[in-house]
Design brief:
Layout (H helix, E strand, L loop, with lengths): L3 H12 L4 E2 L16 E2 L2 E11 L5 H12 L9 H27 L8 H21 L3 E10 L3 H10 L2 E8 L6 H15 L7 E4 L7 H16 L7 E7 L3 H5 L4 H16 L6 E6 L12 H10 L4 E5 L8 H17 L4 E5 L6 H15 L6
Parallel strand pairs: 3-4, 3-5, 5-6, 7-8, 7-9, 9-10
Antiparallel strand pairs: 1-2
Length: 371
């Protein structure tokens, strides 16, 4: 049987439809009449992705790239060396080339990047899944580390809506300082500005979660079933990072290798059937190898004329997959003599992916919600 406070809380929930608990009701049973209204307590789930420019014009791209490339988690060079180069050279040229790349993949109907479109769809489907299990006691929203909607704005909205607990979920299957860690940093900065900080949980990486591996395997099987013949090799292309980061303790490289191995085992393939490579090299220092753009060309020269490429580190298709893999990397393969190049889309809002993400969230909601 519920205690008297719970009973009063239930009564106040039925008595109001605006989400507020008023003096004399529920938790405010003994509060004075002039006590500020408070929201009924909820649990928030905040999904976080990398980010997107607001548009592909010069100034939108410059603002986005400046925020991204000024992040010490992404580029950790001394500011006195890096910022003059960034502000005076890189940001005077790169917004034009990056803008052209974004324009090619832009969702012109909704006037937003594909990453924004897909993240919205993922959020809506996860929210529907959790609502079916927990009603309106769990709120689901998303934010971007760079650009809009900002992490700070979404934390503020969740707190104002009555979320006294927040599960923060960086949408990266693998941990890396330049992705997961910087998303967490921004979340903590947002919490520093809250008068009443919620209790929080950070969702860890899920690179070996059985449902995630199952979703990857299903996407490969689905793609292969649509082809006239099986590709010679499946290339698992992960976003790269400087090799120095691995030597300094970042676990990303090892987690990527484990994902590839688990995917291969789930598919029942031999050890040579899937290759692990890394893309998006930037700057002068050595990055994790082999580089995808060079590796696919080498495969073509070795007589492997039909390959497929999958990007397990990305939870949603974006500039690095739609333009880099399906553009630059495809061209490298074809120019080296390759004949058939198949890009297997990211898991996006696929049903199996949503089930995997929802399962990860449920694990991190444990003890905070009633099943």
């Amino acid at each position: 049987m519920p205690d008297s406070n719970e009973a009063r809380g239930a009564a106040s929930t039925r008595a109001t439809d605006d989400g507020f608990v008023r003096p004399g009701q529920g938790r405010l049973a003994h509060a004075p009449a002039d006590h500020p209204l408070v929201r009924r307590p909820k649990v928030g789930v905040l999904l976080a992705n990398l980010g997107t420019p607001d548009g592909y014009g010069y100034w939108s791209m410059r603002r986005y790239l400046n925020e991204f490339l000024s992040d010490k988690r992404v580029i950790d060079y001394d500011s006195w060396k890096w910022q003059p180069l960034l502000q005076l050279v890189i940001l005077s040229k790169r917004p034009f080339s990056s803008g052209r790349n974004y324009q090619e993949i832009w969702n012109h109907e909704l006037n937003e990047s594909p990453l924004m479109t897909i993240t919205k769809a993922q959020t809506a489907r996860i929210a529907k899944t959790l609502a079916a299990r927990h009603g309106d006691g769990v709120m689901v929203d998303f934010c971007m580390r760079y650009g809009n909607p900002s992490t700070e704005s979404k934390v503020r909205e969740l707190v104002e809506a009555g979320c006294e607990k927040i599960v923060f979920f960086p949408l990266y299957p693998h941990y890396a300082g330049a992705t997961s860690a910087t998303a967490n940093d921004q979340f903590f900065r947002a919490l520093m500005k809250e008068k009443r900080q919620p209790a929080v949980r950070i969702v860890p990486e899920y690179y070996d979660h059985p449902l995630y591996i199952e979703a990857l395997a299903a996407s490969v099987k689905r793609a292969y079933a649509a082809l006239a013949r099986k590709p010679d090799v499946l290339v698992a292309s992960y976003h790269g990072m400087p090799k120095r980061y691995l030597m300094e303790g970042d676990p990303y490289h090892c987690q990527c290798a484990r994902t590839t191995r688990l995917l291969r085992e789930r598919l029942g393939w031999g050890s040579e059937a899937i290759n692990t490579t890394f893309q998006s090299v930037f700057g002068p220092e050595e990055w994790l190898q082999p580089y995808t753009v060079d590796h696919v060309a080498a495969l073509a020269r070795q007589g492997k004329k039909h390959i497929a490429v999958i990007a397990p580190a990305f939870s949603a298709d974006c500039i690095e997959t739609l333009e880099e893999i399906n553009g630059e990397i495809r061209e490298s393969f074809e120019h080296a003599g390759g004949e058939e190049f198949t890009y297997i889309p990211c898991l996006n809002d696929d049903e199996a992916h949503i089930a995997a993400l929802s399962a990860v969230i449920e694990e991190n909601l444990s003890g905070w919600v009633r099943r």
